[in-house]
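Dear colleague,

Following up on yesterday's call, I've attached the two folding results inline so they're easy to grep. Please treat them as preliminary; we haven't cross-checked anything against experimental data yet. The first protein's sequence and structure tokens come first.
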Amino acid sequence: MKTTHISRAAVAAVLALAFATLSHAQGGAPAGNAAAGEQKNAMCIGCHGIVGYKTGFPDVHRVPKLYGQNAQYIATALAEYQRGERKHPSMRAVAQTLSEQDMADLGAYFEAAKPHLAAAAAHEPINADAAKALVDKAGCSGCHGADFNKPISPAFPKLAGQHGDYLYYALKAYQTADKAFVGRGNPIMAGMVKQLSSQELQTLAHYIESLTGDLATVQRSRFR
């Protein structure tokens, strides 16, 4: 089977496109208010505020850790759900109730949590060399940073320590373009992951989960 690697020129091209798109999108973005976001997060913490919570659609996987995530990325992702570029029906329904200011406030709230740097979770043994080769093959570090904890733009997510089963679901979603309720429409990510097999996506996802990062799920009290 022929192996395809993304050249440096190709990575530079997609990054140029990414920054051009982000610059256009961020021009009039409102500033987020963490205190306001704390008052607007009821629909979020019902899933993302429960340690170990899993969703059953389209596959069973843990919902992503949001505390400590970049505010701008959270607002960007919510806007993509609202526009239908991310097709998850529950998330799209939630996003459609939010204004642009709401999204900015929720992003500020989750980023402001600033959980302490979390140690990597226990996981199955990983072939680190093989995983790092996949990181190079897909060009992941070009946007997400060498350690997956310092992306080159706050509009890109921190990934280190994120749940591996969620990462696998998300990566598969970028490979999906022909389903009504599953898939993500980002052409840059689609170009990165289309060259990887399902097994390679799992290896990559579990490797990223094994890294130390500052993402967390904060268990919320039922009484507020």
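Below is the second protein, in the same order (sequence, then structure):
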Amino acid sequence: MTDDVSASVPDVPAEPAGAAPLGLVRTPTGHAGVDARLERLADADHLPADEHAAVYEDVHGGLREALTALDAPPVPGPYENRS
């Protein structure tokens, strides 16, 4: 009695497939700083999943800075505040 077990086992790749980009389209916002941070998200496409958090934290920090800058008072020009 010789059963050929290998004939019933599906082909399994020796190594898992690499990271595949999601192919998400990023629509430009018109704000250069924000657009640069959003483009940085593409870096995660080429990294293993356990390294995604560092990219997301960097992008999140940059977006927070951009939002905080919107609340900052304008810097007076050289000819303002004249008495």
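For the second protein, one point worth flagging: Residues 30-71 form one domain.

Best wishes,
A.L.
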